[in-house]
Amino acid sequence: MIKAIEAKNICKSFWEKKVLDGISFDVEKGGICGLLGPSGAGKTTLIKILTGQLEADSGTSIVNGINSNALTGAECRKFGIMMDNFGLYERLSCYDNLKVFAGIYGIGKSRIYEILEAVGLADSAKKAASELSKGMSSRLRLARVLLHNPEIIFLDEPTSGLDPATAEEIQRLILAEKAKGRTIFLTTHDMAEAEKLCCDIALLNDGKIVEQGNPKEICRRYNHRKMLKIHLKSGEDMEIPHDEKSAEIVANLLRKGTAETIHTSEPNLEAVFMNLTGKELAK
Amino acid sequence: MRNISVIFLKQLKDTFKNKAVLIQFVMFPLMAVIMENSVKIEDMPENFFVKLFSVMFVGMAPLICVSSIISEEKEKNTLRALMMSNVKPFEYLCGIGSYVWLMCMVGTAVFAICGKFSGKELGIFLLIMVVGIALSELIGAVIGIFSRNQMSATSVTVPVMMIFSFLPMLSMFNEKIEKIANLTYTQQLSNVINGLGNSSATLENIIVPALNFLLAVVLFLVAFKIRGI
Known about the structure:
The complex is a heterodimer of chains A (283) and B (229). By secondary structure, chain A is α/β, with parallel strands linked by helices. Chain A is built from 10 helices and 13 strands. A 6-stranded mixed β-sheet of chain A has the order 6-7-8-3-9-10, sandwiched between helices. A 4-stranded antiparallel β-sheet of chain A has the order 2-1-4-5, with helices on one face. In chain A, strands 12-11-13 form a 3-stranded antiparallel β-sheet, with helices on one face. Chain A starts with a strand and ends in a 6-residue tail after the last helix. Chain B has 229 residues and is mainly α. Chain B is built from 10 helices and no strands. Chain B has helices at residues 2-15, 19-38, 48-75, 78-83, 89-114, 119-146, 150-170, 175-181, 185-194, 203-227. The longest helix of chain B has 28 residues, at 48-75. Classes of the chains: A alpha/beta (283), B mainly alpha (229). At the A-B interface, α2 and α3 of A face α1 and α4 of B.
């Protein structure tokens, strides 16, 4: 496995409060890794440390083979960083906002139009950033991140506060970037988003990683109850243990024609997080 | 150099949409033109309004513009986005500094035309304005760097700007104020501008702005070391 990001035992405190406590994980090159945790869990702090905006108290973070503390400007050019609070030039148009960064990266106008098209803002190119809706602003910020075809993309809550349609559009763009071979590291508190996008996730709580791995594997790992969920034609739902007896019950229901759907009942990430921390992920 | 020109062009484009900054560049030159051509008082010194407003312009416009631009970028985190795109603080400061300087020099040209300065007078006037604008920009940068947002920048900029732009005017009415004002570069620039064509610059006219400049550089370095950009 070629590692794009390596974090080893990262600790960070602000005054007395320990925000990150011994964080370790790897992100495979070309993969999407998601960091899940409730607000205040330390997700943004970790992104800041990985991108060299903040120094860790201890531990090492290596991005693209270089220690985050030693990242030069030229190395930073290989990253695309979309922090929740990175603003736009509100008086400038969408096109002019991107033109500023295209000028810095030495990119031609054609790429600006190309990326505006990709994020669905081609028709709003002349619109001032202040006139954009929240969803459009997010898409413009994402366009700014993707403008220079970065090797590694850091996204801090990319769909936070967006309507489902816009969130899905952003997720589609993220998956399109993955298909191009980009490494993506994102933070989110939306478990459905993490399950949809990420090859690997890490669940962060109170500055510690409480679980990490493939989302489906994690869910399977915590599937202690092993139940079957059956939706009957009468509209009722029933749950039965998924064991040697369940085959007979299911066969009976199918013979009678009373079962509409039958599913294995596995916990989702929300339930796993709840199980591990006693907290809800979205809080 | 490319990054400097990108920042410069970005600011230039922003100017016509940013009324708060635009008014700083336009207000005093426009007032000088209007007042100079409409107010005629007996025994009024020649080019009275041009000289008065040009000093106020130097003490106010560059200072407010630079601090406002930096603090706005800090508040909206666009500055962070620039820094993460490999724009160096020096390039950023040069970009906005050169933009504010150019815009202020346009205003200076209006003052010079309005005052009908020519030859040596014009040369000295331009030199004084160049020095004054640079110094005010430096002080504006100190305030911008120290401030976390526009609100805190404004609360510091206003009193500082009032000291540098209004003291020279107030010193005309009170000797005590004049003594204090003599310690500021704007008062010394005002003295030279008022003496244009009549007397040459004194040592005080050079030493005070030079000391002000040194102090501003030290403050700038301290601010940069403590807060960064």
